[in-house]
Structures are given as C-alpha cells and as structure tokens.
Amino acid sequence: MMLRLALFVAVVFGAALHDNSLGCDCYETGASFPARYAYHRFFDFRAVPDAVPVEPANVFAAQDKGLENGQLGSAYDQAFLTDWTISTTSTGPLAQAPVRRQDSKVNTYIQGNGGGGSRLVLRAYKVGQFASSAQIDSKENDVLFASIRVNARVSGGTGAAASIYAAAGDSDLDILTRDPPTQIRYTGQASASDNGSAQPIAMPNGVSWGDFNEYRLDWRSDVSAWSVNGALVGSKQFGVPSSPGGLTLSMWNNGGPISGNMSTETSAHFEIQWIQMVFNTSTPVMTPCKRVCAVDGVQKVGYPELEHKGAGSQIIVQTWHTVLVLAMSISLLCF
Ligand SMILES: *[C@@H]1O[C@H](CO)[C@@H](O)[C@H](O)[C@H]1NC(C)=O
Ligand SMILES: *[C@@H]1O[C@H](CO)[C@@H](O)[C@H](O)[C@H]1NC(C)=O
Ligand SMILES: *[C@@H]1O[C@H](CO)[C@@H](O)[C@H](O)[C@H]1NC(C)=O
Fold first, then answer.
1. Where do the domains of the chain lie, and which CATH numbers do they carry?
2. Which of 138, 237, 245, 284 could cross-link to 167 by cystine, CB 3.0-4.6 Å?
3. Nearest ligand 1 atom, CA 280
C-alpha cells in the first residue's frame, strides 16, 4: 500500500509535475511561431490528492511582513518546491505605486474543486494601503527562449493584476481585473523603443478571462508572441529579451499605473490548472535531436508525442499512455 501510494505520488508529482516525456530528444511547437526546444516541463494541478475546497484566511495589515506559513498538509508542497520558489519579497510604497506589495506564502495554495479535482491558486488581498500578494518563480532560471502555456482563469475585485512573464518581465502577459473580461494585455519592457505600456488585446472569439483559457507565450530570439487558446493575439520583433531568466506567475496590486487600485478588503484570484513549458537554456545542446516530439495537437495536453524516428520519414505516434507506463516503470526502478 505504501509503495503504491509512493508510486502514485511519484507519477503525479515526480513525473507529471516535471518531465513526463521520456523518449524525446527535443520538442517541436506548432502554430504561428514554430520552434524546437531541448527541455519540457509539465506541472498539473488538476488532480492533487487530499486537496480541500477551503481557502486559507486572508492576510491583514497587522501581518504585513510576509512571514505567514504556506499551506501545510497538502501533499503538494514538497514536490512543488522542488521546481518553484514561493516569493516573500516586498515592494513599495513608491510615489507612483503607493500601496505596499508584500508577497506571502499563504497566498499560494492548492484548492480542491469540491466535486473532485483541484487547482493552484495565487491570491491578492488588499487592506488599507497594503496588498498581500502572491508570486511563484521557477527554480529553472537559465531559460533562454521558450514556449510557455498556462491554463488559468482570473476572478475577483477590480485593481488586481495576474501576470505571466519570462526573463524578468521582458515578455509579459497581464490580466487586469479592471479591464473588460474579454481583454488582456501584453507588454514588452525591454527596449526604449517599446513604449513600455501594456497593449490591450481582445481575446479571440469573445472568450472571458473569467473562464479557463490557455495563455501562451512564445519567446524566440527573433520574436515574442502571445496566443490565447491557440489563436495568435499579438507579437513583436523589437526589444525581444536576449538574456536568460526564469518563469514567473503572480497575482498582485501596488496601486500603480498597471494594476490600478483594489478596494480595501477585497481579494482577487489567479487559478491555474496546469503550466507547460518547453525551453532551451544558455548552454547549447550538442547531441542531435533524433527523436522529435510534438507538443501541440497531441491526444493529451502535457504529454508530447513522438513525431519522427531518426532522419527517416516513418512517423511513430507514441501515446501518452506509453509515456505514463514508462514513467511508472522508471519510478519503480528509482524506489
Ligand atoms: C533550441 O536549441 C536547439 C538546439 O541547440 C536549436 O536547434 C533550436 O533552434 C533552439 N530553439 C530556439 C527557439 O532558439
Ligand atoms: C509608441 O507610441 C507611439 C504613439 O502611440 C506610436 O506611434 C509608436 O508606434 C509606438 N512605438 C512602438 C515601438 O510601439
Ligand atoms: C490609487 O490610489 C491612490 C490614492 O490612494 C492614488 O494616488 C493613485 O493614483 C491611484 N492609482 C491609480 C492607478 O488609480
């Protein structure tokens, strides 16, 4: 029983929360800006065991140092912390951002859906001139070019910003709760020629950020591009970041020009079902890619499928099931 439980945890949190694509040398993305990448990560928060449908208590101004404990007792915490850091940094108050932002671990938690299933939640809560916020940073901080996908929804009071960014904010997607529900923003902050302002974009097909959508960021050396549910919504060829960095997700307020102001004693939530990332690092991979795996158009999101075998034209589709069985066998060997 213990071994079976350990195996399950290893598959859900070890393999599935990390690289579940054994048998792939590299990964190929589809759609508007195709590219190949050396590494793949998939973090799935939809079926965390023991997730309870309870939200942790809000943080009040008396606890404004970010010292609150993170969620305990959920199996997720150790596995999650293998790959992510939960921020406790603070900013402000500043003249142009008069609300002190303090990230707290308590605002990053797994919540059960009630009827089964779960999600990762990043929360912002404003009280007085203090905004208790949430941020997670990937421990992989040598990402140099990537295709990043986040399946998420946003809810809550006006004035909060849900952000997804790579390479220290140079390639940024923001969902602002003060915007109409069919509009998001992308920002490139790297270049003086970029006005630095977040460009509003209408989401395709009138979808709302209140519902779960797949937000995608493609960052190549020549372009940054943003897509929603597979449809390209914006791209830019100037000021594309060229230094390695990590992936950051946050839910925040600082009373500044991007987030705006939240009303006191209101909260907002950035709920994340899964995060997928294919990427290169600053160290080039010298081994040739013989086994190319597709990331898009696969049977099951997060489980790349083998496209080509060697240089030949034979196409072998390796299903996610084979990958899962392989992952389980490897986990068994590791135990
Ligand atoms: C990632 O690295 C591989 C191998 O070094 C290279 O072929 C590929 O073009 C790189 N991808 C991007 C988007 O730069
Ligand atoms: C900056 O803003 C000005 C005025 O809105 C616009 O004409 C210009 O194209 C923008 N520059 C860039 C690089 O987006
Ligand atoms: C937020 O409110 C403060 C006053 O509390 C004000 O100075 C600031 O301009 C407001 N920010 C925005 C973006 O409206």
1. 1-25+288-335 (no CATH), 31-286 (2.60.120.200)
2. 245
3. 1
